[in-house]
Amino acid sequence: MVIGLRERMRNTDDVLLHYAPLHSLLADWGKDLESHLSEWIVNHPDAYQDALKQSFAAGCDFACTQTQASSPWRAEPFGLQDRVYELNFKSAKLAREVTPPERYVLGMVSTTNPDFLEPLGNMTYDEVYEGYKEQMTALLDGGIDVFLVVGNHIDEGVIAIKVAKDLCDLPIIAQNVFYAGKKGFRTMMGLDPEAASAKLQEAGADVIGGSCGLMTKSTNPSEWYPSATKLVKEMRRGCSTPLSIQPDPGIPQLIDGKTVWPVSPLEMAKEVSNWIDAGARIVGGCCGTSLEHYQKIATVIRERQARA
Amino acid sequence: MNILSQIAENIRYGKFAKVEELVREGLAEGLGWEVILNGGLFAGMGVVGELFKEEEMFIPEVLMAAKAMEAGQKVLEPLIAGTSSGRRLGKVILGTVKGDIHNLGKTLVGIMLKGAGFEVTDIGVDVRAEKFVEAAVSEKAQLVGMSALLTTTMPRMKTTIEALHKAGLKQVKTIIGGACVTQQYADEIGADGYAENAGAAVAKAKELLGLK
Questions:
Q1: What is the pLDDT at residue A19?
Q2: pLDDT tens-digit map of A94-130
Q3: Is position A2 within any domain?
Q4: Following DSSP, what letter does each residue of chain B receive, concatenated?
Q5: Measured between alpha carbons, how far is residue A189 from residues A54, A131, A177, A251, B8 in Å?
Q6: What confidence category does residue B133 fall into, taking pLDDT thresholds of 50, 70 and 90?
Q7: What's the rounded Cα separation, in Å, for the pair A175 and A231?
Q8: pLDDT in tens, B27-59
Q9: Is B103 close to A114, i.e. CB distance below 8 A?
């Protein structure tokens, strides 16, 4: 029998690997900047499934639907507002088709960008709720195993968690994006990791984490991933759920027209055990993390598990 | 506390109804619109800009402060319209370059520039170079601000600057920003200025337009 993610998090010490930056990997298959991510995926199903297969081969445990831009709000500027159900449903179905047993399809939702929930913006609670409901229903129908709620504005994330709970009993991974500021880590809205994690636990998330963002203002690569360890420890203070962490490999630089991320796979592999010791059970990287980074950290995880 | 300080204080705390009421009160007491605008509304936003730069305030408070400033400005608008002295510090076009849909950084820059007295036209996200040129011409802008969050879209800022120059708008100053943008990159692509954050954008914009 296939063991569900929630049970696995509760009853085993397994550490799972999440390939977060699949969207940037898709550039290797010709994904351009202009097209909408989900529309591109639906039009290039083989490319999307090949990328997922490669990430599984590198040791990853999740196939993400990459539907962060497929809420009604974010589809609308692309003229895709009438295709929200279709794009989310098809992305989930494509991911489902290539996901092996004991691995999971992650249905991703993100912030309401470019507008905000009132009073900051003009969107009402009901609008946000109904928007997430449309998207999350389609992801469910497409066959996902777990929801991934990611964003800058936690009040919107809390609504997405509520929608997930109203619709089904699937587990929910909820992640904040953190930035290193003068007073330490903060979300874009100014919450520290402890307060942000506590709020997501209260909303009912099963796994709580941090992703993307600028982990440190230091340009010294050797300080980058240790800074993520510090973030995991701070999130631990705010909640008791399993944690997840997916930092970027540094601040990207444009060198001779090419995007270069400064922190190496080796640097990442050196630090992963510290993330796990601090409470991380789902690990990975964000934008710019290569499959090579993943192969290296998959090896670290395997070695740990062999020793246990 | 006098009424101008009260207006500034209530802007800082995003109390838009209170700001609106105080602006009316100020006018009734005989204060000129210019005094209220500069000494109350812009003074309040100046504090907000500083606190944001120091990370004492975050985006939610800034957005609420901006709403409060707008509420106050709405009251003054009929008085400002039609006066020659209603001209602001300068006209700015703001947009996120083609291929990039990130909105927030640019919006914050717009809030801070407006709060300092610039006239700002925000032409949105995913903006083609030609559209920047069109807007700069039709608005008779002195400054064009470009944003890009992604390294993959940063080169579009160069394309836009080239398009402005090609259209004979070399006198229009350019300023760029975004998470991965650096001063070095600004120099490389011939941008006149770079700002690390929305607070710094105000000082840079003033410097570029010789308004120090």
A1: 86
A2: 999 999 999 999 999 998 877 889 988 899 999 999 9
A3: no
A4: --HHHHHHHHHHTT-HHHHHHHHHHHHHTT--HHHHIIIIIIHHHHHHHHHHHTTSS-HHHHHHHHHHHHHHHHHHHHHHTT-GGG--S-EEEEEEBTT----HHHHHHHHHHHHHT-EEEE--SSB-HHHHHHHHHHTT-SEEEEE--STTTTHHHHHHHHHHHHTT-TTSEEEEE-TT--HHHHHHHT-SEE-SSHHHHHHHHHHHTT--
A5: 36, 22, 10, 21, 22
A6: very high
A7: 12
A8: 999 999 999 999 999 999 999 999 998 999 999
A9: yes
Domain count, chain A: 1
| Amino acid type, A181 | G
Nearest to A94 by CA among A20, A146, A43: A43
**CA torsion, points A158, A160, A164, A167, in degrees to nearest 10?**
120
Alpha-carbon gap, residue B194 to B174, rounded angstroms:
9
Q: Contacts of residue B179 in chain A, CB cutoff 8 Å?
A: 214, 251
CATH number of the domain residue A62 falls in: 3.20.20.330
Taking 90 as the threshold, does the pLDDT of residue A191 lie above it? yes
pLDDT above 90 coverage of chain B, percent: 82
Chain B residues with a Cβ under 8 Å from any Cβ in chain A: 54-55, 57-61, 63-64, 67, 98-101, 103-104, 125-126, 150-155, 179-180, 185
CA separation for the pair B207, B142 (Å, rounded): 12
Domain residues for A145? 14-303
Residue B175 main-chain phi, psi, to 5 deg: -135, 140
List of chain B residues whose C-beta atoms are within 8 Å of the C-beta of residue A114: 101, 103-104, 125
| pLDDT(B163) > 90 | yes
Given a cut of 50, whether residue A1 has pLDDT beyond it is: no
Mention every residue, 6+ apart, whose C-beta is less than 8 A from residue A78.
A36, A39
**Residue A80 is assigned to a structural domain of this protein:** yes
In a domain, A8, yes or no: no
ipTM above 0.95, yes or no: no
Minimum distance, in Å, between the CA of residue A80 and any CA atom of chain B: 15
What is the structure's pLDDT at A308? 79
Domain-located, residue A5:
no
